[in-house]
Specification:
The protein is α+β, with helices and mostly antiparallel strands. It has one domain: 60s Ribosomal Protein L30, Chain: A, CATH 3.30.1330. It is 31% helix and 23% strand. Helix 3 links the parallel strand 3 and strand 4. Helix 2 crosses helix 3. This is LysR family transcriptional regulator. It comes from Streptomyces alanosinicus. Pfam families: YjgF_endoribonc (PF14588).
């Protein structure tokens, strides 16, 4: 077990299986020392636990928890192309998309769920640049979607 997976276990989390693509793409792609993940939905055992817009059907707190699931799914996607999460030198960038009610402006707080998970699991290696974007709708009516870019140790 890698040190990263041991830290996940310490937090009471396990790395899930990689979420199969919903269309014509790969869950993650390596290019040189970087791994780019596709947008990860908060799938748990092949299903979305909640659907709808944040600020309407989904509370910001629920959405923040879903963003954590997205980040966990992103780490699984990274492992699928690297074989070992201990190869992560740092998380470079996180992009979070939040399906938002028209008056909802708390996207950064929602995406904090992903950022905080990466910090808890990776420490200083999890500190990253980030965008948090409100959108009208996401695939499968998911409330949140997260993608990450990581740099690998050489």
């Amino acid at each position: 077990m890698s040190a990263v997976e041991a830290k996940l276990a310490e937090l009471g989390l396990t790395l899930p299986a990689v979420v199969p693509p919903l269309a014509a793409y790969q869950p993650a792609v390596r290019s040189g020392v970087y791994v780019y993940t596709a947008g990860q939905l908060p799938m748990v055992e092949g299903k979305l636990p909640v659907t709808g817009k944040v600020g309407a059907e989904v509370t910001p707190e629920e959405a923040k928890d879903l963003a954590r699931i997205c980040a966990l799914n992103a780490l699984a996607a990274v492992k699928s192309v690297t074989g070992d999460l201990d190869r992560i030198a740092r998380v470079v960038k996180v992009v979070g998309f939040v399906a938002s009610a028209s008056d909802f402006t708390g996207q950064p707080g929602v995406v904090n769920g992903a950022s905080e998970l990466l910090g808890e699991v990776l420490g200083d290696k999890g500190v990253h640049a980030r965008s948090a974007v409100g959108v009208a709708v996401l695939p499968l009516d998911a409330p949140v979607e997260v993608e990450i870019q990581v740099e690998l140790a050489q």
